[in-house]
Design goal:
The protein is an alpha/beta fold. Helix content is 57%, strand content 11%. It has 11 helices and 5 strands. Helix 3 crosses helix 11. The chain starts with a helix and ends with a helix.
Length: 244
């Protein structure tokens, strides 16, 4: 019995020495090793979101940053019908889960989200317009996705929009078929455009990191340059403001 107690004490002492080695402020304290920067892109179809993410990703990687570009929720969540609010709640939770997990680690320097919690906010508006959720549920879901416990982790968010006619011209420029999709048609793009503009006006009152970029009259080079300039300026200011 005494021998067992001695062995148990020895094991515990060994475990504590190992723990002391691992759990030190250099490894865990965000004041010493900051969390990654998080940037979200969302907006109406053919506004240049994917092109901008791709070019920003390449630029940052070539500058030496470790960059994560998570797969878009719509590409991952295919087992839930898009005809139900559950779909956008689930894609929002997918992005939120990645945001929370990556915010607690140091594997990457910058994470570029192709739609995330601000996108979920906008889509909840859609389901309210369709009368498929109540006003109370709309407030509930939106307040959940924008909780300060995690929305402050998004260092910059870009809502990219484009005139419906120009968006369709871009959409069909190299398309193999001119058959219109469920979301990529002039009427729906106009609805989405107005919704994202409305979302921006509401979000900007409480979330300063949200930016609206209208790409209707911008070349791809101009569009990418504007977003890159804003992104780098925001992140540089963050580096001077101290621990996050």
């Amino acid at each position: 019995m005494v021998s067992d107690q001695k062995s148990e004490k020895k094991f515990e002492e060994q475990a504590q020495r190992i723990l002391k080695y691992l759990k030190n402020e250099i490894r865990y304290d965000t004041k010493i090793i900051p969390r990654p920067f998080f940037i979200e892109f969302t907006g109406s179809p053919s506004a240049g979101k994917t092109t901008t993410i791709t070019e920003l990703y390449k630029f940052l990687r070539r500058q030496g940053f470790r960059v994560l570009r998570p797969q878009e929720g719509a590409e991952v969540i295919q087992h839930i019908s898009r005809k139900t609010p559950v779909y956008n709640v689930r894609t929002g939770i997918y992005a939120l889960t990645m945001l929370l997990d990556e915010s607690q680690g140091h594997l990457y320097d910058i994470v570029l989200f192709d739609r995330g919690i601000f996108d979920a906010y906008a889509w909840i508006m859609y389901w309210r317009e369709k009368n498929m959720i109540s006003e109370k549920e709309e407030r509930l879901f939106q307040s959940f996705f924008l909780s300060r416990l995690w929305s402050d982790y998004i260092d910059a968010a870009f809502i990219m929009v484009c005139d419906a006619k120009i968006a369709m011209e871009r959409e069909l420029k190299i398309a193999l078929s001119h058959k219109l999709g469920e979301t990529t048609n002039p009427q729906n793009i106009e609805i989405l455009l107005n919704r994202y503009r409305t979302a921006y006006r509401k979000l900007k009152k409480t979330h300063n990191q949200v930016n609206l970029i209208d790409t209707s009259n911008l070349t791809e080079q101009d569009m990418v340059s504007i977003v890159a300039k804003k992104t780098l300026a925001i992140l540089e200011r963050k580096t001077k403001s101290g621990p996050r």
